Amino acid sequence: MRRSPASQARPLTARECATLERIGRDLTHKDIAAEFGISINTVANLAANAYKKLGAHSAAAAVLAHRDAHPWCGTRIDFGPILERIKASRTG
Ligand SMILES: [Zn+2]
User: Fold this and answer.
1) Which end of the chain has fewer CB atoms within 10 angstroms, the N or the C?
2) How many CB atoms lie within 10 A of CB 12?
3) CATH code assigned to 11-91
């Protein structure tokens, strides 16, 4: 059985992408919530959605999968000025 890479790589939203990037740096959901100005529950939801899209069952697996899948995120976020983009998308 062959699986198409295109169907496995579900694009993450900018927030899901940013959340996984933070998790990859060993930040907790609490840290991420404080940084983004959102609730811990929202962070957990973003992470859960990202895991599902990446077909990962753990944070570590999701972070690894995301490194490969990041080109499909479509956010053009370069793992740097993510917070500004999120702020912009929240207010816009
Ligand atoms: Zn990404």
Assistant:
1) N
2) 26
3) 1.10.10.10
Where b means 16+ CB within 10 Å and e means fewer, 52-83 reads: ebbebeebeebbebbeebbebbebebeeeebe
Q: How far apart are CA 41 and CA 22, in angstroms?
A: 16
Q: Separation of 11 CA from ligand 1 center, angstroms?
A: 8
- Could you state, in order of their start, the residue ranges of all structural domains in the chain? 11-91
Residue 45, pLDDT score = 96
| Cα–ligand 1 centroid distance for 63 (angstroms) | 10
Q: Report CA(65)–ligand 1 centroid distance (Å).
A: 10
State in Å: Cα 76 to ligand 1 middle: 8
Mean pLDDT, contiguous 10-residue spans, the chain (92 residues): 52 90 93 95 96 91 88 64 59 59
